[in-house]
Backbone:
């Protein structure tokens, strides 16, 4: 039975898609390439493009509108399985109004989650029907942030959403922790902001991952090449960061 994880922050630009994509690759490497599923709920479709998925085929948008079954939209890209996103996801709040709309993803995943080890959901950077569906369907959330004021502010907003979903839709959901992305340990400002993030983590009863994902050009190059960082540059320091992060992540959810 799959463990379902949403990578989420209500602030954009924190690297959710990059982390989702490389987390999937890292987890598969740690689990002897057992099957994972990526789901792209972000209308920017970043992991859809990075995964080399066919964007002309049906998407998660069609599933949430109940126009097609979830089995019909899964694509095998050789690296992993993915359910592609759609730019039409920005319209989802307008077209879904029925009672129970927040359970549509959860209900669909019930049919397939026994086929995967992990299902990783890349979420939109806004509070929306899509993000509520992700939280309702998930066992855990992973919160990426950067060591800056605006990114950290998104954590507080997300926590209020998390509490509401936990109360009304999914009492079992848990926070794995906050992962700091694009971190530059050389700057005083980054160190000060890290202290602020750690304080926020205490306020929402979670922790900051020990591993900080440093800002390397190789990560951007790998993304542009549509390859995960492990395969793009196996000996790069960025791989050390992601390997340590994945190990921490798996240890947290397998306690």
Residues:
């Amino acid at each position: 039975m799959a463990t379902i994880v949403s990578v989420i922050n209500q602030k954009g630009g924190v690297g959710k898609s990059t982390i989702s994509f490389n987390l999937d690759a890292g987890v598969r490497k740690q689990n002897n390439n057992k099957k994972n599923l990526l789901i792209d709920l972000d209308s920017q479709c970043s992991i859809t493009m990075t995964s080399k998925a066919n964007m002309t085929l049906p998407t998660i948008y069609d599933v949430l509108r109940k126009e097609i079954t979830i089995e019909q939209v899964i694509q095998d890209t050789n690296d992993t399985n993915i359910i592609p996103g759609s730019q039409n996801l920005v319209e989802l709040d307008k077209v879904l109004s029925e009672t129970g709309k927040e359970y549509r993803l959860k209900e669909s995943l019930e049919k397939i989650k026994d086929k995967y080890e992990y299902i990783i959901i890349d979420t939109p950077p806004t509070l929306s029907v899509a993000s509520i569906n992700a939280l309702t369907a998930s066992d855990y959330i992973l919160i990426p942030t950067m060591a800056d004021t605006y990114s950290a502010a998104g954590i507080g907003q997300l926590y209020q959403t998390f509490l509401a979903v936990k109360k009304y839709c999914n009492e079992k959901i848990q926070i794995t922790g906050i992962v700091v992305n694009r971190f530059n340990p050389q700057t005083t400002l980054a160190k000060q902001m890290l202290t602020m993030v750690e304080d926020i983590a205490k306020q929402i009863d979670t922790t900051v991952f020990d591993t900080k994902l440093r800002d390397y050009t190789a990560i951007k190059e790998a993304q542009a090449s549509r390859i995960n960082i492990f395969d793009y540059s196996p000996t790069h320091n960025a791989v050390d960061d992601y390997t340590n992060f994945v190990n921490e992540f798996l240890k947290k959810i397998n306690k």
